[in-house]
Queue: 4 jobs
Job 1
Amino acid sequence: FKIGDYLKIKRRKSRVKRGAWLFILPILLLHIFTILVPALVGIYFSLTDWSGFGPATFIGFENYRTLFEDPGFLQALRNNFKWLVFFATVPFAIALTAAFLLSQVKRGGFFYRIAYFLPYVLPAVVIGSLWKFILNPDSGITAILSNLGIPGFEKALLGQPSTALLTIAFVDNWHYWGFLATILLVALQSVSPELYEAAKIDGANLRQQFRYVTIPGIRPTLVFMFMMTSIWSFLVFEYVWVMSQGGPAGSTEVMATYLFKAAFREFSAGLAAAAGLTMTVFAGMIIGVFLVLRKKGWEI
């Protein structure tokens, strides 16, 4: 092995690295100017007293102190956690059951997949507006059910603090679980049939096959979608804003609607930036938890 051959190999590797950087440079620059720079600007404005117009006055962490002393923001934070608990359980249970049952269907499976997925592609504003009309206590389906004598529908579900947030979560779940079922169905179809055959030979029933074959086989997809759902739970905005705008009495206020009102109603852009950065921190904490689990050997 000669030194000249070593230098040739080193130069060749250097050219390959430069070529790789040239290929990723456009998307890297795009990421810097659309993600990194706005993020740094947002961090700066979160430390200022700024109305969104004119100069900003640096006030340090005063906006963060204001946030966590504001009962409205704390209520919004609690509602985001309630939303997280709901979407980490209900849609996953429905979607996993539907995907498993659909995986057993031999004919018409494509029709069911389209039917499940269709609500997800509809605009959130359209869905929220339609369901708001459907849930109208005077002319919607709740009025019809109440007139038929069915108990529990005689009140405005979106007008009661005790039911408003759960009602909006139900509507969002109606739109979301079909998408989740489709994703999980694809993961189910990637599980080797030989594993099910081996389980049957060992005497495993349907429930045991689901527990010991299906769940381990789709665990990476399941965990990934759980992570994404958890992140989205802290970013929810459209359905809440269209259906209640945070009311009644702040019972459906979430951090995104709090941020929107602070920025565009109260013209406290600095406070809104602090709220947005707080949302980012919570989403980052979720990602951090999953990164730790991955280092511990979880398949994510």
Note: The mean pLDDT is 88.
Job 2
Amino acid sequence: MGIIPLDFLVSIPWFPEHGGKVDATNLTVQGGGPIPNAMVGLARLGVRTAVVAVVGDDLAGRLSIEQLKADRVDTQYMIVKKSKQSASAYGFIEPDGRRTIALHRPIFIEPRDLRLARYAAPRVLHLDGRDIDATVKMARWGQRAGATVTFDIGSVRNDVTPVLPFIDHLIVADAWAFPYTKERKVRPALEKLAAITGGTVVITEGIKGATGLENGWFLRHPAYRITVVDTTGAGDAFHVGYIYGLLNGADMAERLKLGNVVAALKCGVPGARGGMPTLARLRRFLKRPPEMYA
């Protein structure tokens, strides 16, 4: 469960000065959101996935649902609110792959919107915490249903503290972990977060790779060197590889590796979903992976 904006992403030769203009070199329009992106990525790897998210009865909402269906993601639990505007995001991608995003989200999931009795019990429940009251309700339900609860957050926006005790695998970006824990280094930040959740914690750091803490053991895996086109959705892609490993009984080392692999493949293509690999492409990459960052 999570937000689902329709992404409008333009590639630009440089970022204009305040009040300036620039001609875009490419336009990508596709569904977005950390959880829907991850479910699309997992579906391409052969995993059965479903999304709980809210859209309006407008063109953006219809496109978001149609694109999920095109990737064989189950949309029967989507919430459609009449006379409401769907969320949308507007991104600018620079030549080095960095992106600047503006999100417009006038629509939200309330706890009363959830129809828990209708939902199939999942092996993994993946959440983003943007609608925190509904997120807590889903996390509690996931625990009762016997699901492994995973969580994604990339930046500090709203307070997600209430849901953290229900999370089994907290996989977050350094841009959130360091401000939240008031730490500047990965290990103490991991320790603080693990003390809150009681589960596994992973912090991603872009080209520095990812570091995890599980059962008292720290483990780091470097990122792969590739030609970066667009970093939009790199964190979402990491979750795809990590959860795929989790579903297949992989240990921490393999989960971190798979997360970095899928993130690297994604960054070679514009858009959050464009580079999400098929299982065949993932296996080809694993046979001859490129050099890693130190």
Note: The longest strand covers residues 6-11.
Job 3
Amino acid sequence: MSTGAAFFDLDKTVIAKSSTLAFTRPLFKAGFLNRASLFKAGIAQAYYQMFGADHDQLERVRQELGELTKGWSQEEVAELVEETVEEIVTPLVYAEALAIIDEHIRAGRRVVVVSSSPYEIVAPLCRFLGLEEIIATVPEVDEEGRYTGGISFYAYGPGKAEAMREFADEEGIDLTES
């Protein structure tokens, strides 16, 4: 029997800012980012908070993040996010979003978070919120587990919608009931 699900975007829906940019300070403290990168991320976050972002801006950010993270250890980034997720995310979570998510869970619907942010950031953040099912961007990594700067799957725009349809098909979710 197929059931409905509730699909939630993460950034500026469940949390108050870009999940990727929320972790710039811990990345700076850990030596991943220099001062110029931290400053640039701060400006990007302020702009995103005030005006949102259109397709071209998000594409530019995606390319810049790819170049910036090239050579970083995927495992080290995932560990850093896991270690800092509570302190970073707690002040950003919208209480209303959690209440709505809880209503869906109590109604028997599966809750799926869909985000254009990288899996290494989205997964620990969602686990912290008690949510396990996610669709997120998957960065490319080389055989040594380092980011190449490329993307295996970009959960944005048509790619995000297609991933939701595929997830629904695989999981027996009725999108008309979602």
Note: DSSP finds eight helices and four strands in the chain.
Job 4
Amino acid sequence: MALRETLHDTDIDLFRQELVNLIDLRHELCVLAGKIDWKALERQFGGLYAAGVGRPGHPIRLMVGLQLLKYLRNISDEEVVATWTENPYWQYFCGEQYFCHDLPIDPSLMTGFRNRIGSEGCEFILGLTVQTGLATKTIAASSLAVVNVDTTVQDKAVAFPTDARLLNKARIALVKLTQQVGIKLRQPYTFIGQKAFVQSARYAHARQFNRAKAQTKKLRVILGRIIRDIQRKTEQLQLPVKAQARLGKLLEIAKRIHSQQRVRAEGDPPKIYSVHAPEVECIAKGKAHKQYEFGVKVGLVTTSKESFVLAAASLPGNPYDGHTLNQCLDQAKRTCGVAASQVFVDKGYKGHGCTTDACKVYISGAKRGITPALHKRLKRRSAIEPVIGHMKSDSRLARNFLKGANGDAVNALLCACAHNLRKILNKLRLFCAQMEIGLSDLLAMLRLQQARL
């Protein structure tokens, strides 16, 4: 697949309207488009495309621009593609010369591009937003060495995993897949299984827990029967390799759901909390309103002064916060090119193990050896909390819809990119407003001088 470049024709098409004649070039999105190093993106991602194979790929600037706009507005792939055809500023930001009335891409290509660049490519985009912040003076170069670090939970788009729901979802997934591959089950238990699941929820709501347990046990028996029936049928049939791999993977998940108990014994494999997302983990952060969260832990690194995000590392396995500090700081160094000299963390990072002389870690609540300047920065550590809140409310960190562990890493990094771009846009918007006020004052002064003359 060859790569199409973003080129502007020197010859003007008289029958098409140029975007520069439709929009205000002082708009913050237009100014931002001129500050981002799009050539660096093309050099970075151009090697992912092979020349002379298949249909030419879409321009890198278009694909990256759509990803950034998606997370800036917290909308889906379908919505960002549909809105792109209506908004001339979005088209200019993505490198178009003329106003386009057609969809730029099929929405499914957004997923393909994210999978193509992976977490490494998204990390490069995050580094590019940091460079853009330096170019627009949104952040100072001296701020990159003084950072705040904290962790949060990136929730996955899964329902609350009760035993009855997991057993019923596994049954539904197995029946659906067997129908696709051509295996005829002895009995799919469609009506009986759904009725048992509904009755289990109703009994639990009425606090009739013995009856609810009986319905859950019925669902477990039904799932075991379907698993054994599929195993017997697959031994007799010769399925294609892909179908056999899909069925084997789903059977493994269903077996673990069927055998796992409420309390996990020592030596048991990790519990599964979702059929379609088996990588989901149960994380307790000590919140009073939400005891457990189901997703993956994410470590964030922000500048202490401007709260500009330098790293957003996905941390599977629910590690202890202190053991994640080196990984987060390494990612921050890759994105901004500067190693942190002062790191401010909360008390959850005790025993972090980061004892290098070049990097000093200060834990909140420390008293010994704390100067007035360090005390101010320790108080400033809590500024990372509203950053997490904004990334969850304004971006898509609160509910991740991307698939797999790679989707967890990609979603966190793109949320960080969107947060940085919002800060840059606010800076550019304020600058443009000041320029307009300055020009209006200048024109008023000139009119007053002319009137006096």
Note: The CA atoms of residues 153 and 297 lie 5 Å apart.
